[in-house]
Every structure is written in C-alpha cells, then in structure tokens.
Amino acid sequence: MNRIAKLLKTNYPIVQGPMAGITLGEFASTVSEAGGLGVIASAGLSPEKLKEEIEKVKDRTDKPFAVNIPIYQPGSEKNLDTALKADVGIIYTSAGSPEKYTERVKESGAKVIHKVSRLKEGLKAEKAGVDAVVAMGFEAGGIIGRSGVTSFCLIPELADNLSIPVVAAGGIADERGFAAALILGAEGVEIGTRLLATRECPVPESVKQAILKATCDSTMVIERPVVMRALKPELSGDSENPALGGQVSGLIKEILTVEEVIRKIAEGLNKAKF
C-alpha cells in the first residue's frame, strides 16, 4: 500500500477535488463508497449547513472522507471547528497559509493535506507539519494558482524536494494520467473535472454535455477576483457564470458512474509498473 492510500485509509490513492456547491455530502459519500476519498467543499456553507452535509456522509457510508477548508474565506475557522467537532478524520486546507490551522488539526488527531501550486508553497506546507500536499498544476479547473507551473513540472519538483507524499492534481482523466503522475513522483491523484461528467454529479446536464464537446483548448483563465479556469462561453452558454473545468475536458468523451471513473483511473496503478 502506498503512503497516500495508507494515510487516507482508502482503497485507492484517489482524491475527489472539492468544488463549491457541487461536492457536498451526497456526492462525497458516493466517491468514498467507490474507494476514493470524497471531499465536502465547505466554501459558501454556514457551520450549520456544513454539519448537515457531514451528517449526510456519515449516514451513507462508513468510509473515510474529508472536508475542504479554504483558509482565505470568511468563516473558515468556524467551519473548521464544525468539522473537528464532528470527528472528521481528514481536513483538506487550501487557498492560504497552512500554518494557520495545521497544528490545531493535528492536535485533534485528524490528518491534514494542503493544496499547493509551486515549490515554495510545498516547502512551507511541509514545515507547517501537513501530512501530504496536493500539487495543483496550472491546467487544472476551478481556482488555480498564479504561478503558471504545469503538472508535468510541478509534480517531480515537489517529489524531489519534499519528504511528505504528493498528490497530483490537474490534467488527469483516466488511467494514463494516473500512471504518468506516479512515474513523475506522485503517490496519488486528485480528480475534479472528470467527476463532473458522471451520472451522480449534481451539475446541470448542459455542463456535462459542454465537457463532452470540449477539446483541450476549450478553457480560459479568468480573474473574478481569484484566478480560475473555466470552459469558454461558447461551450457553456453562459458568459456571466462560465462552467468551471480543466484542460482535461478534452479527454472526457462519455458520462460514467462515479464508481466506473474511480475504477478506470485506478488501473493506472498497474500501468505505472509496466
């Protein structure tokens, strides 16, 4: 068992990317049941609503799951309190300094993973005491870093310079991406856009169809006020609220179940062994 699967206590070292308003309790539990790590996105949730979503997961599965805490967001500390009081075993921090909450999370007995987009952030996260980092390449969908470093460079740079395990995020849609990430030095992967195009995902059908129609150059980077990658308006049909998605959209050609996606990507474990 590799370090990520051992740390997360999941069947596969596969993490579901947190997506605000989408990856809530029901969807996160579906991912966990399929053998990955389901993640509740707490962005935009009140502590009361977050508690409800945590309870939904616990009602549906006894498998491990995480809560994502975007550090910069107002209310992040209260949501962290809520997650820890509910005995959530894994806290996934992002968008801010890991020093702010890591010690507190570790003292509670929970594990903490932190998202980074450049080496400097990875070194800072390791020094703060996080258990693993998620390496988010610039090709990823949703909120992305400003560094512009892609997964192919970021993953080995982090793996070469950190002693804690690295989870690759950005540009992974199938077992080939997983195998490539492992060869580059990652010990697990995070998938977001690929999970949008699943039967269980609660996004509009129009978003799923836009992903299926996309090519790898069908996304754009916008700032409002954070840097995000989204599908171009001509695909999503909404210039005011474009659908978030990564460049990997161009590799997604069918809508599958969450379980089918997880199992297919997990095949990369064998491919990486040649």
TrEMBL record:
Please name the CDD domains in this protein's record: NPD_like (cd04730)
Which of UniProt's keywords are assigned here? Dioxygenase, Flavoprotein, FMN, Oxidoreductase
Top-level taxon of origin: Archaea
Q: Which SUPFAM superfamilies match?
A: Inosine monophosphate dehydrogenase (IMPDH)
Record's Pfam families? NMO
Q: Which GO terms describe its molecular function?
A: dioxygenase activity; nitronate monooxygenase activity
Q: Tell whether Flavoprotein is among the UniProt keywords.
A: yes
PANTHER family assigned to the protein according to its UniProt record, in alphabetical order: 2-NITROPROPANE DIOXYGENASE, 2-NITROPROPANE DIOXYGENASE-LIKE PROTEIN
Q: What is this protein called?
A: 2-nitropropane dioxygenase (Ncd2)
